[in-house]
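Whether sequence alone determines local backbone shape is best considered at the level of individual chains. The sequence in question and its structure tokens are set out directly beneath this paragraph.

***
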Amino acid sequence: MMVRRWRLLVAVVSMTMVCALAPQAAADAVSTPGWADGWQQTSYPAIAAERDTAIVMSDGIALRANIFRPAAADGRATDTPLPVLLSMTPYLKQGADPVAGGGMIGLSQELIRSGYVSVVVDVRGTGVSQGVWDVLGPREQADTLEVIEWAARQPWSNGSVGMSGASYLGINTVQAAAHRPPALKAILPVIPGSDLFRDIVGTGGAIGLGFMPMWLSIVNGGKWASGLQAMQQGRFDPRWLADRLAAPATMLPELAAVLASPDLAALPPATVDLAGYSDWYRARQSDPSRIQVPTFVIGGWHDIFANSQPAIYDAIPLPPGQKQLLMGNGYHATATKGFGEPGAPPSVTAFQRAWFDKWLKGIDTGIENYGPVTLYQQGGGWTSGDSFPRAGVDYQRRYLTADPSASAPHAVFDGSLSRTGPAAVDQLTVAPGLRGLCSRQAIEGTAGMVAMLPGGTTCEFDSRFAEAEALTFSTAPAETATVLSGRMNLHLNTVLDATDGFWAVSVNDVAPDGTSTVLSTGQLVAGLRAVDEARSTRTPEGDYLEPYHPLDIAAVAPQTPGAPTVLDIGLLATDAVIQPGHRLRIDVYAFNVPRALPIGASIAAGGLRPQQVRLDPAEPSYLTLPLHGRPGF
């Protein structure tokens, strides 16, 4: 019973892959390219499966793989060497079994039967693979390279390997490509990340409370489930058991300690390493600028890894066409919801078929002419172009002022976003609260899981409930459609009554009826406000566009209580259109649970006290916007 329950829990996490990788109905021929209509055509009538094959790593650890090969109607696998599509998963490879009706984290039956071998491997320390889970670390990355080499030299392989998968599987796909293994010829990562600490683990220096404990609990539970089931079936592996006992709950005790402890000095160094951006995270950060194989990145504006996805595309030194970016409007668990429907991009399986047919089989599918940048424009619809941000973006300031916008009477304060700065000094107070539990940020921060609960979408597209705990600043209604394309930054003049605090912000599209929909978000622990100038980007006018905060927990800068202190909060990149009559709004909060929670030491220093935003003509607060075309406000 316990094993079945853990497998069910792991299936919940694997649902983050369902919309990303499961086949969807093809869109009509009017709205999709020709290759999208033929992805279900197959050359083989069946699939032959080989399960729990041992792949021994250079250090003696045995990983276990399921191998799916195209077969004749009688179930005999073809002898023809074929390209291999590899997935490395911590989510139990049973969930990627197309023969048994899985496929949540693997390939569709149609793709395998079209002439590909699918190899799905339990990463080290998970499923029935031996070893200690390294969580995307150096040893796990070395394993992936060794598995690629192993797959390329098998008799059923023609030596060409591709990688595709969602979430964790997309992350290790990007990692592998950056290492340049010779046999890896093309990749298609779905909702991948690259800078994992800034993406979700510790965005702005605050721990991803809604995602990290849930995710670690499920994967740690799942890494026991398969082995225990094998033991029940008489397949006992003593090395597997010894490895699980050596690390029964990877990262969970350390994460709990940094959240609970008011004094980091009382914690072991290895635990402190998880609290801020450290060598532990640097070893897991990929370098997309090293990727040399064709790469198709599929992401989403409200995904937990949205921070990385456009950056991965931008960094890859390949011409458009050989690299592609597609950004949807879903969450981690629903990243490709609607794909394959009329007017939307084709299904992910259609993209996989066309992409790998082109780069692994040499078939002229025309996929290189798609995009190369396909974006869901928030407030509008699907668009296609040559770059992101859009060419010709003009960066402009909009200042936070105390002038009432008369559009947010429900908020703690209703101010304006204006072309000119404040005329007088004002100091506005905002206190921590829990209304963020019903917000789009809550859905984002739980990988979309909140939206799957009864009533979970109540606040998805309207922030007014949460804004009752926010300072809001809104533009006048737009006179013409106004396009935003790229990153934004909030330059915020603050005052604290303590030595630390926490700020969370969102940029919203406000409809004429008052509905306030989140477009982009950002957050920052005040004590980690330091900026690495060499790694930051600025506008031509000199304003920060993407401030790079080192987030070094050993270099916390206490804020002087009562003294005005300026900080810069970068917001996620987006592409959106503010329609005529709509307003642009920025919300400023002092808390952001469940999306994030500062570590215990930061909360102890700040005391969850009310915080102030200072509106000062001499040191104004302003939002830097990436405007494309003539702005309407």
The CA atoms of residues 48 and 633 lie 61 Å apart.
